[in-house]
Design the sequence.
């Protein structure tokens, strides 16, 4: 076992972990307020990557523009979905939200597969971030380092806003008791809409980050979302920091599995989920509700 | 959180005798299936009947216990592999192959069920989906499943040493018999005292617990029964089409059975059958359009959830004022 191979897989693990963390964070924020599991999350991650692709090929706007445009546009798409469809389901069983967003994911992914097939479209990384650092024991590609640092920054900023600011306190209060918060004069329906838009924007941002690494593929989010569900079950949706830590940790575990027992690398997260369910059904950071 | 009050149509009232209109509907359905192969392509009918049984088994969970399993493809798929393997590699007769496939699905259902019932509602759906995905990867990598190729050219064989299943007509009536038996078993289950407890759990789980029912045991039995009957459908399907493949284990298949049941009517007796025939018919019709199948299915999901939550049979039952 060479140290390079180990470090290489660890790095890939960290990158995957960054995506797990950003996606499960978005799911957790949405679930907290809307009580909906957003099955469209994987499709919205894919949309983020496609916005980056379109921006480059149609408008000549590069990576840095995409980092701004994709969350805005896909977030706006999310806001429209919430206003036109999701809000009609709040009085129903939560499972209907899952079914609706599953249907939306099928439609969005189907449309893109019709247009672009199921093979990936290449998306080149910005010139500034090409190349790699020589760390002595391994080469660290600059883009990958950037993805890890940037996504960690986004996750921590989200945590800060939700846990440490006034806006975040409204959000947490509305998660506990929306009726009471509304009675205090806060526009809860608007907050719900914006929260959904924000969660979706996080997914789109992750999609832009993923585009240069995994290519832009209509089905890039389809299988990923199931792994992210497992991550969410393992972490429990009670805590923001929990979602971040679980995401990164599971990415690393998956990377290590690829080194030591590659046959299980696809399934290791699901096995961990089964074990966590046996020992601590509410999830590592969750509380029963 | 645990209640599913708005989930489905109002409860059928528990009566000792089977309501006449349901007997009539059942007789009509069976009569239609008996004569159908003279008018419709029998292979299509067999496919639809297998999926109808699959959807009925799924409906047992969502419609009567209020549990949304998003991983039912696992049982359909592993049963298919089990029965195909038994028939092809071991040379087992079809009845043994189908029983073996069903048994495999039952065991898988027992394991997954035990884990999944530890959480409720939305978590239950996510857990079943994730564990089914694990089964998918297992089937993708295991050697006996044939990976991407699946198990092909499975012999149909001779049922009980008497009925030659290579003849399509014989095969069709065997599939019909299996479907009717499965259907009646589900019907009997939901109208038994056991089924009444399941509905009580669906309506108000804490109250069922406080009345002294071991809720988890009831849920697990219902889950395993549902997995076993899904397995029966999958095992039969593998013999009919002489093929077991990854398609049947994939998450999109889990989504499809949800769609069939939702479209036909959650918690109705005949809804899943109607839903399965509509969805399979649609797929046949749209097959040449490729990825459009996914788009149309997604659109049906959206329309059903937003405006048509009772489903075809649920609406029909409402118009006739009789639960179907």
Sequence:
């Amino acid at each position: 076992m060479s140290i390079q191979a180990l470090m290489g897989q660890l790095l890939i693990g960290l990158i995957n972990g960054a995506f797990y963390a950003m996606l499960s964070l978005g799911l957790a924020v949405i679930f907290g307020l809307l009580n909906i599991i957003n099955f469209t999350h994987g499709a919205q991650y894919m949309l983020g990557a496609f916005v980056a692709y379109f921006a480059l090929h149609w408008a000549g706007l590069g990576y840095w523009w995409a980092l701004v445009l994709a969350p805005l546009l896909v977030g706006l798409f999310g806001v429209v979905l919430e206003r036109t469809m999701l809000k009609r389901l709040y009085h129903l069983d939560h499972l209907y939200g899952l079914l609706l967003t599953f249907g939306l994911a099928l439609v969005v992914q189907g449309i893109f597969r019709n247009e672009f097939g199921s093979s990936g479209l290449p998306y080149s990384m910005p010139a500034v971030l090409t190349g790699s650092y020589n760390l002595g024991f391994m080469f660290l590609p600059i883009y990958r380092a950037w993805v890890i640092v940037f996504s960690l920054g986004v996750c921590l900023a989200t945590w800060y806003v939700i846990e440490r600011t006034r806006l975040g306190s409204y959000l947490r209060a509305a998660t506990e008791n929306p009726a009471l918060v509304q009675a205090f004069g806060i526009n809860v329906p608007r907050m719900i809409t914006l929260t959904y838009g924000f969660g979706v924007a996080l997914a789109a941002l992750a999609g832009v980050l993923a585009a240069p690494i995994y290519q832009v593929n209509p089905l890039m989010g389809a299988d990923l979302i199931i792994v992210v569900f497992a991550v969410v079950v393992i972490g429990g949706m009670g805590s923001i920091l929990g979602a971040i830590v679980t995401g990164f940790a599971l990415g690393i575990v998956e990377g290590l599995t690829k080194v030591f027992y590659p046959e299980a690398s696809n399934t290791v997260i699901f096995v961990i989920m089964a074990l966590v369910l046996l020992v601590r059904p509410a999830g590592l950071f969750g509380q029963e509700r | 959180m645990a209640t599913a009050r708005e989930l489905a149509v109002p409860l059928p009232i528990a009566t000792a005798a089977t309501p006449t209109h349901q007997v009539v509907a059942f007789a009509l359905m069976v009569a239609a299936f008996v004569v159908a192969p003279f008018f419709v392509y029998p292979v299509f009918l067999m496919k639809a009947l297998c999926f109808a049984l699959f959807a009925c088994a799924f409906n047992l969970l969502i419609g009567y216990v209020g549990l949304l399993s998003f991983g039912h493809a696992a049982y359909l798929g592993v049963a298919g592999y089990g029965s195909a393997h038994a028939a092809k590699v071991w040379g087992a007769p079809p009845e043994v192959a189908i029983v073996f496939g069903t048994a495999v699905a039952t065991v898988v259902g027992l394991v997954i069920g035990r884990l999944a019932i530890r959480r409720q509602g939305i978590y239950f759906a996510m857990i079943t989906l994730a564990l089914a995905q694990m089964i998918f990867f297992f089937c993708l990598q295991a050697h006996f499943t044939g990976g991407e190729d699946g198990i092909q050219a499975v012999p149909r064989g001779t049922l009980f040493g008497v009925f030659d299943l290579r003849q399509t007509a014989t095969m069709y009536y065997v599939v019909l018999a299996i479907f009717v038996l499965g259907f009646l078993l589900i019907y009997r289950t939901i109208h038994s005292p056991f089924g009444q407890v399941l509905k009580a759990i669906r309506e108000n789980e804490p109250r069922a617990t406080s009345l002294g029912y071991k809720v988890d045991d009831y849920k697990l039995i219902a889950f395993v029964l549902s997995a076993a009957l899904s397995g029966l459908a999958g095992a039969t399907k593998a013999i009919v089409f002489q093929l077991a493949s990854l398609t049947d284990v994939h998450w999109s298949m889990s989504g499809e059975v949800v769609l069939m049941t939702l479209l036909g009517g959650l918690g109705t007796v005949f809804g899943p059958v109607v839903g399965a025939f509509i969805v399979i018919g649609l797929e046949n019709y749209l097959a040449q359009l490729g990825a459009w199948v996914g788009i149309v299915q997604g659109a049906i999901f959206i329309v059903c959830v937003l405006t048509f939550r009772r489903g075809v049979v649920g609406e029909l039952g409402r118009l006739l004022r009789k639960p179907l």
